[in-house]
């Protein structure tokens, strides 16, 4: 292989590695039009490589609490109704204790489980 051809090949390889839009043809540098067109386009919408976890978004904890309480009251509706009928003196203090007791079950779920529950409820 002639020496000049080898040098030209090395320059082309170096240009490709550097991402240079210029090519050498007959000893002259030319700009690659398609490369310029691509680089001059306005940037498209980029996605955040680290999206905000669902539970860090505003109102997500409240949304999970509401979702959880709805599921609990649906699943144990008959039992809660029996308790309400049996407990004649169900004043606000006892009701608050019952609600807090039901809500305490929220703590057994991991953040991933909470996010999956919220996503599946939509």
Automatic annotation (TrEMBL):
The keyword Transcription regulation does not apply. One of its GO terms (biological process) is ribosomal large subunit assembly. It holds the Pfam family Rsa3. The keyword Nucleus applies. GO terms for cellular component: nucleolus; preribosome, large subunit precursor. It comes from the Eukaryota. Keywords: Nucleus, Ribonucleoprotein, Ribosome biogenesis. Residues 32-41 have a biased composition (Polar residues). Residues 1-59 are annotated as: Disordered. It is found in: Nucleus, Nucleolus. Residues 64-110 form the Ribosome-assembly protein 3 C-terminal domain. Belongs to the RSA3 family. Required for efficient biogenesis of the 60S ribosomal subunit. This is Ribosome assembly protein 3. It comes from Funneliformis geosporum.
């Amino acid at each position: 292989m002639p020496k000049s051809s080898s040098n030209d090949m090395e320059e082309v390889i170096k240009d490709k590695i550097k991402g240079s839009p210029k090519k050498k043809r007959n000893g002259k540098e030319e700009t690659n039009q398609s490369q310029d067109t691509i680089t001059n386009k306005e940037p498209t919408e980029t996605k955040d490589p680290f999206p905000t976890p669902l539970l860090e978004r505003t109102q997500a904890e409240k949304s999970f609490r509401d979702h959880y309480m709805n599921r609990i009251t649906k699943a144990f509706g008959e039992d809660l109704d029996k308790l309400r009928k049996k407990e004649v003196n169900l004043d606000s203090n006892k009701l608050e204790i019952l609600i807090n007791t039901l809500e305490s079950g929220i703590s057994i779920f991991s953040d991933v489980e909470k996010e999956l529950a919220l996503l599946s409820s939509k």
